[in-house]
Write a structure and sequence with these properties.
The protein has about 325 residues and is of the alpha/beta class. The chain is about 35% helix and about 10% strand. The radius of gyration is 21 Å and the shape is globular.
Length: about 325
């Protein structure tokens, strides 16, 4: 935009998301000069570099062996004390160093590759540490069996308990992130980029496989940002799917998209090509469905590819400018 003599505001854009590892004071100051809010995405359970020196943080599968990364997406064991401490310290550094407007949790789910039309979601983590904590926290005595057999015993006899416990582990991370935000930079929004599936989609896999319990995380989160990438997830000809998912989320969490509500829904929608292509003609429909209540904001995925198709950027700008300062029936106020 700047190379074309324009600013984000010329396209109706008022906020930019940056990765926490690419943020700098120079970037922050420049975006402030452009009158943009600055939000940061923070990688929680997908920092694969940690495994180079701490291989014991790798998730263990139902066979009792280290689970290979599905489609190359490497997750980590959420009960590994050192890894959690590492992520929390990194989170603290971002908040202490930069006067940002918000920070979004990213990849906060179990070891998996779900961002595709056919997701790969192995059951994990059955390392000795997780098994011991599960037994301690639930009071369930585990049988004296080889690790691969213990995992099968749990999934066949105590799957609900296992899923509930796993969800609780991930939610406790969110609680600590919330406490950290409130202690270091109160008022900064805590958001989360998360799987857009309903409780019934894919047999309840968001909870049963990814261990994302949105209701239990809700007390700690300010902004929910589901990721309804319609083209990537098998809905290339059905952009209305975006709204169906956000509408369900609003009903599920009791968020209506009304002025003054503390909790908000800002979906991140797909305009760039990833997997299936998104034609220019879909830009406005996708943004229309993405900004309907209960949503009160929308983010676009993703600039790196989108800027290579400037006709889409122009369509985005036209749409953003058309809804700024307006409130139409069924559409989020801007």
């Amino acid at each position: 935009m700047l190379d074309r003599g324009k600013a984000p505001a010329d396209y109706g854009v008022n906020a930019i998301w940056l990765g926490s590892t690419t943020l700098s004071q120079d970037k922050l100051m420049r975006l402030r000069e452009l009158k943009c809010r600055v939000y940061v995405e923070f990688n929680t359970l997908h920092s694969a570099e940690y495994l180079k020196e701490h291989p014991d943080a790798a998730p263990v599968g139902v066979d009792g062996k280290v689970c290979p990364p599905p489609e190359g997406w490497q997750g980590l064991c959420p009960t590994h004390v050192g890894y959690r401490r590492d992520r929390m310290k990194a989170f603290e550094r971002v908040l202490a160093s930069y006067a940002i407007d918000g920070i979004w949790l990213d990849y906060h789910h179990a070891h998996s590759s779900w961002e595709r039309a056919e997701p790969v979601m192995p059951d994990t983590c059955f390392c000795a540490r997780c098994l011991g904590l599960f037994s301690r926290d639930t009071g369930i005595t585990l049988p004296d069996l080889p690790p691969g057999e213990v995992s099968q015993w749990i999934l066949s006899r105590h799957k609900r308990d296992w899923v509930r416990w796993r969800c609780g582990v991930l939610t406790d991370w969110v609680r600590e992130f919330r406490d950290t935000v409130d202690a270091i930079r109160p008022g900064v929004l805590l958001g989360t980029f998360h799987c857009p599936w309903t409780d019934s989609d894919r047999g309840g896999a968001r909870i049963d496989k990814l261990h994302i319990d949105l209701k239990s995380q809700a007390p700690y989160i300010d902004v929910f940002s589901p990721m309804p990438y319609h083209a990537r997830f098998g809905h290339a000809q059905d952009p209305e799917w975006v709204h169906r998912q956000t509408r369900w989320l609003g009903e599920y969490l009791g968020i209506r998209g009304k002025p003054g509500e503390r909790k908000k829904i800002w979906p991140i929608v797909q305009l760039s090509d990833w997997g299936e292509n998104v034609p220019v003609a879909q830009v406005r429909p996708v943004l229309d469905y993405g900004t309907r209540a209960p949503a009160t904001g929308v983010t676009v995925f993703a600039w790196g590819r989108l800027q290579e198709q400037w006709d889409k950027v122009e369509e985005l700008g036209t749409y953003y400018r058309s809804i700024r300062g307006t409130e139409r029936k069924g559409q989020a106020p801007k």
